[in-house]
Amino acid sequence: MKNKKIVGFIAAAAVAFGLGLPSNSHFNADTEIGISYQGHVENIGWQAPKKDGEEAGTDGKGLRVEALKLNLTNAPAGAHIEYQGHVENIGWQDWKTDGQEAGTDGKGLRVEALKIKLKNMPGYSIQYRAHVQNVGWQDWVSDGQEAGTDGKGLRVEALEIKIVKVSDNSTVGVSYVGHVQNVGWQEPNENGQISGTEGQGLRVEALKLNLVNAPEGAHIKYQGHVENIGWQDPAEDGQETGTDGQGLRVEAIKIALENMPGYSVQYRAHVQNVGWQNWVSDGQESGTDGKGLRVEAIEVRIVKTQDGSTPKPVDFIPVNNTPAPTDDDSNIPEPKYENNNINTEWDLSDKLNDAMGKTKNPVGSYVWYNNSQKRISDVFGGLNSDSNKVEIGDMSTDEMKADIEDSYKDNDGGLYTSNNGIVYKVAGVYKEIKSTKSNDLTTLKAAAQKLNTQFITSGYDPSQTFDRFYVNTDGSGTHWVVRVLAYFTNK
């Protein structure tokens, strides 16, 4: 990929839209979408409705907000507003929608926090902030983030809420599609819609993003952090980031714009065990890096900056977090397996596998015979023994596969039976090599992250893959990172 200077823009608030509260309003394309909200306040009761950024509740009187009702105004068919209150002695209540009461009325209990989000409203964002006891006005948050406090026993005293238009693809927008575990490629989504799944525990495995109605020369660039790989090379304009068919999770994503003066790209990820993270923008990282957590969904939107500013976005992570190998490194040949001159540096190998997050898979046991005496051994240990021979050149990958297949006769037609009772057969054995002139762990990890070219794409169980790295040397100062993989299937 050509190196281009990535130019993007830090997000700023867009134009807020305000209307009144007709209870049965019909959507009018010529009228701006707004919001109306009403607070029930200590010693006051239900206040008159407020709209589009106005204050509901009280500021400076020390009175608690006890309940809230929210409604959209002039919203399109099928659009809804959803909100959830955290209430004294109760905690988080169920989500409410379209004028239902969140909080309590007549029980003297304070609202302590609130989350608000839009449904079926692509191109729009809901933004809100709370005035909190002993804190004052908090920063604005948006789209399901928490306003107020949770677990501190502090009352919400006032709220301000507004609808912000981000993009509807009638001008500049973004389209994106995700490849999801057990689903495959989904239909494209646009401008703040969810790509992936929410609440199903399925990993996003790959993503493609495109600009819509963008000016000539504009680009969207993105970089994925992937299980067992790390940060990949940046992709752009519909190219794939992540992997398709390898069963690997996307763990983080960075997105930026190029040649798009006056615009910012905003995005957020729904992460395993975390839920929806805060919105970030313009090259910042969304998701997690180094925690082994899957991204389950993303939302992306284009926002026009309020002042047309063009600040530089956060730079993408250099691939592998290390300088690129020197030309000398790239020209080092594969090791010469002769006269037993190749040695494995076991301590470095163990550290590298730990750094790459390798676990001792697959798990199970297999039967073998020594002088007609039956033995039962750990399947990982047996594979690792053959793999050691492969990585120093004493056995080929074909010979390792044949050795595995020779065990079928003693193991119910496969190599081993896993802990879930399934019999597994070998689907393929592969070996890859990357050279370097340094045995520094960071450099070795960078070399290891480049070894990802021989994954098979189907016909195997990803949870039962043997995958190990070894660090070899011949004493000359050259080091080789060797990766040996064995795939297994239950078919």
From TrEMBL:
Keywords: Signal
SMART domains membership: ChW
Region called Disordered, residue ranges: 309-342
Origin superkingdom: Bacteria
The keyword Signal belongs to this UniProt entry's keyword annotation: yes
UniProt-listed InterPro entries: ChW (IPR006637)
Keyword Signal: yes
Record protein name field: Protein containing ChW-repeats
